[in-house]
Amino acid sequence: MTDLSLGRHVAKNKNIADHSASPDINPHAVTGAEILIEQLYKFYAEVKVLEDLDLHIQPGEFLAIVGRSGCGKSTLLRLIADLEQPSYGEIKFKSARHIREGINSDDIRVMFQDPRLLPWRSIEQNVQLGLAKQDQANASTLLEKVGLKEKAGFWPSQLSGGQRQRTALARALSHKPRILLLDEPLGALDALTRLEMQNLIEKLWLEQGFTAILVTHDVSEAVQLADRIILLDQGQIAKQFKVELPRPRQKNYAFSELEQQILNAVLAT
Prior knowledge:
Layout: E1 33-44, E2 47-57, E3 62-66, H1 73-80, E4 88-95, E5 108-111, H2 123-127, H3 136-145, H4 161-173, E6 179-183, H5 191-208, E7 211-215, H6 219-225, E8 228-233, E9 236-242, H7 253-267
Parallel strand pairs: 3-7, 3-8, 5-6, 6-7
Antiparallel strand pairs: 1-2, 1-4, 8-9
Helix pairs in contact: 3-4, 4-5, 6-7
Family: Belongs to the ABC transporter superfamily.
Pfam families: ABC_tran (PF00005)
Protein name: ABC transporter ATP-binding protein
């Protein structure tokens, strides 16, 4: 199978509007999937959340989605994750490893604002959740990478909010996803812990080369992490911004100028 379609309705013949400017993906080993979204609509009864949305996400790209509450950010993420079905349109994937190799739900992981850990399992057991026995050693390696090796035997209730989110990140990456979806995972953290988590997410993305999509209300966070930022407004892509700042990113004049430009665009919607 060349690709996996999440849409139950086939889109009409229409060229895919490539909203990307073919962003320069970082020169890490890319294992992520290419995502093509065509004529995507999502309705809840009479409420139109997404309308005729076309989007092309490159393999290994880090995309951030910003916009006001209710603009369709999280809905788009849930549709990509196959947690919901489109009202109309298609979402298609292609593997960066081989054009004929398909992508399925096991290749996609979601990290939510709530870490959603099982309270009756240890931290290590939470990270190992769903892994085959031969892959469980990878969980220990990831716990070490997120700085929780010494807390592997702890219960979730014994950890801070930031440590629980680190555990959730390790759990998501233990499955070696081609696509990691981040639905405001750092929104509840304090400022310092949030910065540490941003650095950790970027480091692991550079190491593993998955395609990352971040939904966030924090424009600074989007500029810090993304290759490209899209602004959603009333279910459509209103604007997009290519982030050409070198990594690791410093909050200098160029950073602040782009951040303000995007913030002004959000406020204008």
